[in-house]
Request: fold
Amino acid sequence: MDANELDVNRTLREQLEFHWNHQLRARLEGLTDDEYFWSPVPDAWSVRPRGGSTAPVQLGAGDFTMDYAFPQPAPAAFTTIAWRLGHVIVGVLAARNAAHFGAPAASYETWEYAGSAATALDQLQAQLDVWLAGVRGLGEAGLRAPVGAKEPFPEMPMADLVLHIHREFIHHLSEVCLLRDLHLHTKPGTPREQLMTAKTTHIDPEGLHRNPAFTQGVITPAARTLHVGGQLGTDSAGNLLDGIEAQTVQAMRNVLAVLAAAGTGPEHVAKLNIYLVDGVDAQVGYAASRSVWGDHRTAITVVSTAGHARPGALVEIDAVAVIPE
Reply:
């Protein structure tokens, strides 16, 4: 493909794929049944065992049904993670997969809703895989074609529907993540051990070059420890600065940016590792780092290397820090 040619299909898919692979999927890992069914308010709509709901309408063909009402109440009912996942799985993905990509027929009325968090996440992944494969198969021409009579606006191009589905997916899954946070921090009786054994958190602060292959820092909540990935002397666009002094200053600034994004600072750093290319004047690098780092004493290891993975990089710095309570 010509460098000036835009692959619209790939761009649309990557909008959702990147968000799923680098943000949402990790936030959903380990979802428990208690979180799945939890409601922070009375009378929330949810997914319930058949016969156990008092909602005006109970949708579904299996052992579990999803609460609903016609017409919808105003204000809209609060919904649990179970309900929101059911909506995304069926209404956002499965029904569209059936309408446009040859998947089995699916509707709110005929779906077998998940009775556990693990089953719901399996359903979500399965429907997402079908959707992304279907979008990939559209190519450029398919994105321009009208969506047809199966959608409320039949003359709308398929690209508009793809954007709509991706917005819905990101929007509702963000709500699910927020509900997980609320459950973790507000549910009465949540033991501290649960708070301290949550999943690791990735830190990618604004102002640092974002690489889809790795994250800039990782917090391990069990010990409230931040591991800062190796930082080069690159600016926010990923450009490598010239010379050991400029690169060291920038690399150290990048380390500080990751620390700040995680809620900590140089005074809480337990260890710095500094990797210098052979022949570099370590004293120049040390003086440059002190101008940014200041007088915060910490354990330091300085290693001389033959080179770094990125050509032209003269220094790389990583760190381990404690995140204060």
User: Anything to note?
Assistant: Residues 189-197 have pLDDT under 50 and may be disordered. The beta strands are 47-49, 57-59, 64-68, 201-203, 217-220, 225-231, 269-277, 299-305, 315-322.
